[in-house]
Amino acid sequence: MKRATQSTETPQVGRSVPRLESWLKVTGRAEYVHNLRLPGMLYGKIFRSTVAHGRIKRIDVSAAQAVGGVYRVVTAEEIRKLVPEPYYGPAFHDQPILAIDKVRYVGEPVAVVLAADPHVAEEATHLIAAEYEELPAVYDEVEAMASKAIVHDALKPAGTFPDLKHMKGRTNTNLALDFHLRRGDAAGAMQAAERVFEHRFRTQQVMHTPLEPLVSVAESSERSLTIHTASQSPSFVRTEVARLLGWPENRVRVRVPFLGGGFGAKLYIKLEALVAVLSLIARRPVKIALTMEEQFFTITKHASTFRIKSGVTKDGRIVARECEVWWNGGAYADIGPRVTQKSGFTAPGPYDIEHVAIDSYALYTNLPPAGALRGFGIPQLVWAYESHTDMMARELGIDPIEFRRKNLLRDGRPQATGTVMRDAAIEKVLERLEALMDWNALLDRGTGVMRKGRGIAVGFKACVSPTTSVAIVNVNADGSCIVYCSTADMGQGSDTAMAQIAGEVLNMAAESVSVVHSDTDVTPYDMATLGSRSLFHMGNAVKQAAEEAKGKLDALRKELQLPADSEVAAIFKKKYGMQAGNVVATGSYIPSYQSPDANGLTDNATPFWMVGGTGVELEVDTETGHVRITRLVNVADVGTPINPKIVETQLSGAAIMQLGFTLFEKMEFDEAGQLRNASLAEYKIPGILDIPEAITNEAVVAEQKSGPFGAKGVGETGTFGVSPAIANAIHDAIGVRLTSLPLNPEAVFMKLQELK
Amino acid sequence: MRREIRFRLNGKQVSAQVAPHENLVEVLQENFGLYGARESCGQGMCGCCTVLVNGRAVSGCLYLASLIEGAEVLTVENNSEPDAVQQAFIEASAFQCGFCTPGFVLMTRQLLDEDPDPDEDAIKHYLSGNLCRCAAYPEIIEAVKLAAKKRRRS
């Protein structure tokens, strides 16, 4: 008889199991919402604002409504009949399902045309006419601090986060959150320091561009609603849509199959509230599938400005640091205020500095909203503090690695918040980086117009906290196992990792474990698939559930007087007299956490730290400014890898993505806030010809003691050091210091001209 | 305005009613339930919509469906057993989210048909019209080399 499951004593964790869904993906048969069609389904196409800030005077949909095949045209007016307060968002309830009274950025959704044929719907959107009374707009995050142009009349915090409550009802401000941390006496120590360095850095607005653009489908009856969506946060979608409708959560079902990439773009609510109300209004299933162009008007990565100042002793000890960071959140807060705080507190970098002052500001502007993108603000911060670190080292005449080593934050020492570092292999990452880069060997400097250089950078991140994951493990009567969890597999390999964890506990081959994708009617709560949290949080929950299942099976063996090594199927057969029944077990995980006090200090800021280091060798063409990366070294503390091959591809993929954000990607806006390059023809992302000639990825030997089998998250770690490592290497090659991203040939060339 | 076109799809003679503006991806998805070729950028920049028409790779999202009248159309769903290329992509872990993978698989097959033993430079240039936002490029290059080896062996 063929057994349903292979029982095995072989370790399942630490094995490079090919992704469980491999065959589906190479044959084009994997399920994406992109593929979904429902009987009677209508397509929605969005009519968008053409002005950056304006009062809506009139929306004329009559010509669009008259087009043959158009089912209905919907504006905010109709939505308000169904949902009186149709504003959503994870941090602020500031984003209207469709624009109400005002528009706040070019590209904001204003109306939707519904038709059975998407071409008809699209065509009809061109016949909608809107008139606006234009208002002054603000685009720059630093200007937004004092601008007369105010994006929101009054602030509306969602109430979920205690540190945002005090913002409620504030008027005449673009500040969505100001986070402050004070440790020691930064100003005093700065005055006493022998050397003081101050620099200012900028990052640009970029977009995730998942190749499966954002897509959601909703179907409804009077009593219930099902949303099929490419979402990283099904539990949040359910909660938020239920809140908007005033329904209990059990009437809203959210299903998520595979995602064609996410990177943070598919978090919280994007199209879900819109398709939900449209399906209730139309009483038909509704699908909205964005084009690549439309994604740029939906969610982006924060542009930022960072002023950093350090006081240093003459032998190179950093004694004081001031960080002032402005985050350009765009027109709606999305998760920006969390970025401001959760990343903000790591702004001084992985260094042991006694006196620290941090001011981190989330700003509203009239640009497309910014949220989470692979690193949650960390790459912006590392870009600044690791460029700054190199600039100081060079000024002081100290080797950049030596300077870092002298100031490194070691395990057992308090980070800026006061939280004592544990299981953060910062020192080891630096050490391995030095070895892999062959740092002590002399580098060929190039000849003629081609100059060579190298650089490194080390960054770290605190996992967002506190968040909850719940999992169910079900053992069937034939001995096979199913894991139910709401983690979205968007390519990071979570299905495989969870199967390995459950398999390890239950002595089953990971390949024989099934993982049920998010379906909020079936899979339990999970905060979201974000911030490299899932392997740690959901991994712990799955491990706990599997252990409980194993315990129940062992108890049954005892009860039924079966030998301890009897087959699982034999237990059920004896208990129920036939192949029947289940053993169901649950696990839930929330780490301990302490909120920061009035000074931003806490002794428990995060359940784990991620550490990533990057080394780069490159060649600069001094005639054209063109930079060619010849070698890229990614070193990371990922704890103990569950699946070494997937870990490697995560590190390398993240680093290459960050290479695009570093060297060429940039959303270009004109003076009226109109995006000029919203397509892959004009907004270039890394292709196969852009990858470095040599790439090395290494996970240092490490263990996250609180993680499942010693593991922790890895999805973002590869991004941390890339941008500053490249800038540092460019400086090393040609003596030119760039402080604004991207580091494109034009920027390098212009800077070279300045020096001449 | 629809008219009937006949063509061979994955080895079988088929017909479809198509409108003049409909592209190949739409017809494959709507009429035949084949989702392996998928529109992403909509501009022929990313290769997610790759389909073979008369043995040549085309961008299905830019290819008018009515032009396939009488043609031989092959999609990633063609083979029911994994071929050397698909096997190599799995072994080399040459994908993450999988959305771009069918395009890479089809282009790799076409490359290996033309050049059974391509060097790294040839691989990169041949696949430069396909984008992978997960950036599994190093693994894709490995997969192509592995597929070439597998093909030579058989």
Question: What's the overall geometry of chain A?
Answer: globular
How many extended strands of chain A? 28
Q: Helical amount among residues of chain B, as a percent range?
A: 25-40%
Query: Mean pLDDT of chain A, nearest integer?
Result: 96
Radius of gyration of chain A: 27 Å
Shape of chain B: globular
Can you tell me the residue ranges of chain A where pLDDT is under 50 for at least 5 consecutive residues? none
Enumerate the strands of the largest sheet of chain B in spatial order, edge to edge or round the barrel: 2-1-5-3-4
Report the end-to-end length of chain A measured between terminal Cα atoms. 80 Å
Largest beta-sheet details of chain A = 7 strands, mixed
> What is the alpha-carbon Rg of chain B in Å?
16 Å
Structural class of chain B: alpha+beta
Number of helices of chain B: 5
Q: How would you describe the overall organization of this protein?
A:
The complex is a heterodimer of chains A (756) and B (154). With 756 residues, chain A is an alpha+beta fold. Helices cover 26% and strands 24% of the residues of chain A. Chain A is globular, with a radius of gyration of 27 Å. With 154 residues, chain B is α+β, with helices and mostly antiparallel strands. Helix content of chain B is 36%, strand content 16%. Chain B has helices at 24-32, 84-91, 101-114, 120-126, 137-153, and strands at residues 3-9, 12-18, 50-53, 56-59, 72-74. Chain B starts with a strand and ends with a helix. The mean pLDDT of chain B is 97. Classes of the chains: A alpha+beta (756), B alpha+beta (154). Chains A and B meet through helix 1 and helix 17 of A and helix 2, helix 3, helix 4 and helix 5 of B.
